[in-house]
C-alpha cells in the first residue's frame, strides 16, 4: 500500500511541476514579446528615440 501511495504522490508532484513549468514558459514568451514590442514603439523625445521604461 505504501509503494502505491509513494508512486501516486510522485505522479502528482511531477504533474504539478510540469504544469507550473509550462505556465512559466508561456509567461516568459509573453514578457519577451512585450519587451521586443517596446523597442519598436518607443516614443520620440526631442527628435530622438526615448526610453519606453521609467527606470
Architecture blueprint of SSEs:
Elements: H1 2-40, E1 44-45, E2 48-49
Antiparallel strand pairs: 1-2
Name some characteristics of this structure:
55 residues; 1 helix; 2 strands; 71% helix
Q: How would you sum up the major sheet? A: 2 strands, antiparallel
Number of helices: 1
Strand content: 5-15%
Rg over C-alpha atoms, rounded to the nearest angstrom: 22 Å
Low-pLDDT residue intervals, each spanning 5 or more residues: none
Separation, N- and C-terminal Cα atoms: 57 Å
Which class of secondary structure composition applies to the elements? mainly alpha
Question: What would the principal axes of the Cα set say about the shape?
Answer: rod-shaped
What does this molecule look like?
The structure is a single chain. With 55 residues, the chain is mainly alpha-helical. The chain is 71% helix and 7% strand. The chain is built from one helix and two strands, in the order αββ. It has one helix spanning 2-40; strands at residues 44-45, 48-49. The protein has a two-stranded antiparallel ribbon with strand order 1-2. A hairpin with a 2-residue loop joins strand 1 (44-45) and strand 2. The protein is rod-shaped. The model has no long low-confidence stretch (mean pLDDT 78).
